[in-house]
Design brief:
By secondary structure, this protein is an alpha+beta fold. The chain has helices at about 10-85, 135-150, 155-170, 180-185, 210-220, 245, 255-265, 275-280, 290-295, and strands at about 100-105, 105-115, 120, 125, 135, 220-225, 235, 295, 300-310, 315-325, 330-335. It is extended and about 110 Å long. The model has no long low-confidence stretch (mean pLDDT about 90). It comes from Sphingomonas bisphenolicum.
Length: about 350
Amino acid sequence: MPDPLSSVPPYTASRGTKNERGAALLTVLLLVAVMAVVAATALERVALATRMTGNGGAVDQGRAYADAATEMARLRIADLTESNPARITLAGGWMGTPQSLPVPGGIATARVTDAGNCFNLNSVVSGESETSLKVRPIGVGQFQGLLQALGVDARQAQAAAASLADWIDTDSAPQPGGAEDETYARMERPYRAANRMMVDASELRAVSGISPAIYALARPWICALPVTTLSPININTLLPDQAPLFAMLMPGQLSVGQARQLLAQRPADGYGSTVQFWALPSLAGLSPMTEVQEQVKLTTGFFGVDVSVDVGGTQVVERALIDARQSPATLVRRSWGAGA
């Protein structure tokens, strides 16, 4: 009887072995390729994590240097106010002058400004408690006057000022042209009026009637001081370029051009008293309200400190508000970042 295996070609077994070896080699190559991709991804993530850790460390170090520079500025502000508590002038070139401070691995630059020479958004209301903020008409009028001095249409300026007061006051009744919760509830993304003091001037963007164009115009001139008092304008440090801030005190009575000329004629050592200032011939014929007369100051109660730190290519920007109304001067708040 013939052998069944005799019909199988003698090379069949050898061909199967070669196929298996080829498949095994292909599998190994695929595994190697996958492992290479995984390893490359892991190395990339490790490198990214290392860079992020390094950047985080540099940012923390930069903030520490910025905090130190702010503290040094606070001490200098305290010296400035204590040296002449009755009058702060531009003498000594302290305002806006960059002061370089070498730090390990980089440099810090600090600038001090008069943070009271601005329109205090919180001055459109009066009241000491967050639960009893009432509309202050003179503050509303000054904000409207500022916007008009900057070129905003009178009707738009009136609506924006009324809406600002409604945003901060604690009642829910809108003023003529103003806006309360029902206005914001109809928006594409509904929200409610804050009914509290503003902490940062950027909050103005949420107020009805404040378009991006109006906000861009107003931003250099506004602030959110932690008080509801009328903007404390220091007539001895207000610059001619800041004339709209003085013109807003008496809307309709004093033009920006007249205010600029008045500030340009200020004595080099400033005014010795507010009585002397209001008695100027160029102010004759004006009738400022008593509150406005008292609003004009010879001293500065709030200072701004801008610090920029560059350490190893990493930049940190810090902005701080210093309250110097009492001794010692105290840090009110600070923020970080390019838009601080």
